[in-house]
Amino acid sequence: MIGEVIKNFLRFLVFTLIQVSIIKHLDLGIFITPFPYVIFILMLPINMDKGWVILIAFICGLIIDMFYNSLGINAAACVLTAFFRPWVLRLYAPKGEYDSSSRPTLSSMGLGWMFSYAGTLVLLHHFMLFYLEAFTFSGFFITLAKVILSSMATLSLILLSQVFMEKTSVR
Amino acid sequence: MYGIIDFFKRNYFVLLFAALEFLSFYLVVKNNYYHQAGFFNSANSVVGSVDKTYSGITSYFNLTEINKQLAEENAKMHNMLSHLNDSSYRRKLKSSSPYGQKYDYIMAEVIDNTTNRTNNYLTLNAGKKQGINIGMGVIAPSGVVGIIVNVSDNYSVVMSLLNKNCQISAMLKKDGTFGTMRWTGDDFRYATLSQIPMSEKLGAGDSIVTSGYSSLFPKGIPVGKVEYYKTIPEQYFYSVIVRLSTNFKNLQYVYVVGDIMKEEKNQLEQGTYKEQQ
Questions:
Q1: Does residue A141 sit at the B interface (CB-CB below 8 Å)?
Q2: What is the number of alpha carbons within 13 Å of residue B53 lying toward its C-beta?
Q3: Which of A128, B91, B159, B207 is the most exposed place for a label (fewest CB within 10 A)?
Q4: Cβ contact B116:A30 at 8 Å
Q5: Which is nearest to B30 in space by CA: A70, A129, A74?
């Protein structure tokens, strides 16, 4: 139990640091701004109390916002992601339900599951994020393009990080 | 009573979600309009030091370009200095500006900068201790950069001109017709100048400079050049697309401009409005 908490905390530190020190400075044009730190919320244990998940997601979003000077935007997107996480988990549940050893990772659930699980939640997260940021400023379709392209970039980075974590077993 | 507790117990997740979402939206709106959220921004010392470490590593990569910019600026300064030494010019300067200097320039280094978001900000490694305050203008050797929106002791956050909430007053250099400058929202090289009357004769390449009306920036700081303009049907104004003179992707040293007499000017204007009411 304590080990799980420490593991998740370390994961939070690593993903946040990667997000704000490397990913933030990638300049891929206005349409592609990936936010792979979301994987931290996705990787919280499946059976974790959903109230805790949503609180942790809020704090995680706030911290990212501090670095992006976008107070509230990432927090709102993370809270939405955490809110829909139980539904999405149920939606893609395997036939025999999740057992006690199941973890929401590539190594535990396989590529197809990870792709649809992460894909759905990342799309939700980015939808909230980019529309909240645009706030009637730029056109609907420009923002939609940003959502879709950035989601694809985020999802690729997430799957890549999952493969990397599987190889090095720093889960 | 039991019913209420039961309701909360059953729906705590939805309620928690609603409360946190509401709080986030509230923060977004507050941050958009007031920009004084204190702790939760990159002026915070933890965030500042992470940014500083990063910029310490990457600043080496564009040294050549920065050197060139500084050398060009040096040359410009030398030119101005020789003008000032010309005694006739000095006399003219004295009469037009009774207190001599009106603006204070504080140098700062950019430790964080984005150009590809809808709301872009910069973080500078100078703050209150160096004399920076909220509302000061920020300029680079090549032109306008943005406005200070947050300060801590040693860091400050600049709302870049590349931000949907940023508006500055700018004018045509040749005859002083002024309008409002706003970012177009998609390309870091262009911004729109609105409210230029259609009676105006415009040409591509006309210089746009700050108007000095807002006392954020001194008059005549370069903003950009007219790229093209379009007429909006049933309106009497042009929408002018301006190519910005500042290269926002390559900013390392900037000056924060403080108007020494801003207080006095504001007080005078406030007083006048009150008298009229």
A1: no
A2: 9
A3: B91
A4: yes
A5: A70
Task: Label the pairing between strands B178-183 and B143-151.
Answer: unpaired
* Closest by Cβ to A69, choosing from B12, B23, B41: B41
In chain B (277 residues long), the average pLDDT of successive 10-residue segments reads 79 91 88 62 76 78 77 76 60 45 80 87 91 90 90 91 89 89 87 87 89 82 90 82 91 85 78 76
Task: Flag if A27 and B116 touch (Cβ within 8 Å).
Answer: yes
Give me the domains of chain B, ranges plus CATH numbers.
45-165+249-260 (2.40.10.340), 168-248 (2.40.10.350)
Has residue A43 got a pLDDT over 80? yes
CB-based contact B187 A30, cutoff 8 Å: yes
Indicate whether A30 pLDDT > 50: yes
Q: Is B186 exposed, middle or buried, given 0-12, 13-18 or 19+ CB atoms closer than 10 A? A: middle
CATH code, domain with A98: 1.10.1760
DSSP secondary structure string for all residues of B218-272: -TT-EEEEEEEEEEPTT-SEEEEEEEESS-GGG--EEEEEEETTHHHHHHHHHHH
Total structural domains in chain A?
Answer: 1
| Least confident interval from A49-53, A65-69, B1-5, B243-247 | B1-5
- The reported pLDDT for the residue numbered A51 is 92
Task: Find the closest chain A residue to B9 by CA distance.
Answer: A51
Can you tell me the distance from the alpha carbon of A38 to that of A143, in angstroms, rounded to the nearest whole number?
20
Where would I find the beta strands (DSSP E) of chain B?
103-113, 119-124, 137-140, 143-151, 156-163, 168-172, 178-183, 190-197, 207-210, 222-231, 237-244, 253-259
Put simply, whether A111 touches B (Cβ < 8 Å) is: no
Give A107-157 pLDDT, tens digit per residue: 888 889 999 999 999 999 999 999 988 875 567 888 899 999 999 999 999
What whole-number distance in Å separates Cα of residue B43 and Cα of residue B149?
10
* Residue B228 neighbours by CB under 8 Å, 6+ apart: B204, B240, B241
Cross-chain Cβ contact B42/A24 below 8 Å: no
According to DSSP, residue A32 is labeled: -
Contact of A153 with chain B, judged by CB distance below 8 Å, is answered with no
- Which two three-digit tokens encode residue B153? 């002791």
- Best B10, B110, B118 member to test A by mutation, with max A CBs in 10 Å, is B118
Please tell me the predicted confidence (pLDDT) of residue B47.
Answer: 80
Interchain contact A61–B (C-beta under 8 A): yes
